[in-house]
Write a structure and sequence with these properties.
It is built from 7 helices and 7 strands, in the order βαβαβαβαααβαββ. The protein has a single domain, classed as P-loop containing nucleotide triphosphate hydrolases (Rossmann fold, 3-Layer(aba) Sandwich), CATH 3.40.50.300. About 50% of the residues lie in helices and about 20% in strands. The radius of gyration is 17 Å and the shape is globular. The chain is of the alpha/beta class and about 200 residues long.
Length: about 200
């Protein structure tokens, strides 16, 4: 039986996205959910997006979004979804929720995050985990297939700033949740995928 939910994790430039793309055939009607939505001009990010786009099959549909992903899955039906990537969706969602909670503009994010209380942090963490729960539930209830690509975090040094540590911890919690929920999990190291679940 084909796995309905797969998580593919690995470090930066480990080959995880290319491996995920190879899990589908070029002929399949796949929806590529690209979560690296550029909210501001960024040449490095634009180059990354171009590289990813060049590898995709012409038969695949690209959906650029990080909000309402569960609703999108509920309202559409594809042979499969490739969500790339979990970390970027979580990052964009984090800043979106910070803006809502603090009623702040991007220029004030850093200051607001530095003074956030533990209950405020917990509220945002819970909202993010709820979003991921809703995505998994949408996949299960519609009986569709989702491959989610994520970055393995926490293998390096402890981040220097509070903001980076908060995000690292949230990424770790999201990854653990998705790994538990997934039917299969792969860890990609230097282009070599290892099935760990």
């Amino acid at each position: 039986m084909m796995a309905q939910l797969e998580l593919i994790t690995g470090g930066a430039r480990s080959g995880k996205s290319a491996f995920a793309e190879q899990r589908f055939t070029a002929a399949e009607a796949i929806c590529y959910i690209a979560t690296g939505v550029m909210l501001a001009p960024d040449q490095e990010m634009a180059l990354r997006i171009e590289r990813h786009q060049a590898r995709r099959s012409a038969n695949w549909q690209t959906e650029e979004r990080y909000l309402d992903v569960a609703l999108f899955i509920q309202q559409h039906h594809f042979a499969g979804y490739l969500l790339d990537d979990v970390t970027m969706l979580t990052t964009n969602l984090f800043y979106h929720l910070v803006a809502q909670q603090g009623q702040v503009q991007p220029a004030a994010y850093d200051d607001y995050i530095e003074q956030m209380t533990n209950p405020q942090i917990k509220e945002i963490e819970q909202q993010i985990l709820t979003q991921w729960h809703d995505i998994v539930n949408a996949v299960r209830t519609t009986k569709q297939r989702l491959l989610a690509v994520t970055n393995e975090v926490g293998l390096g040094v402890v981040p220097a700033t509070r903001q980076a540590r908060l995000l690292r911890d949230i990424y770790g919690d999201v990854n653990q949740y998705l790994a538990q929920a997934a039917d299969q999990v792969y860890f990609v190291i230097s282009g070599l995928p290892q099935q760990i679940k």
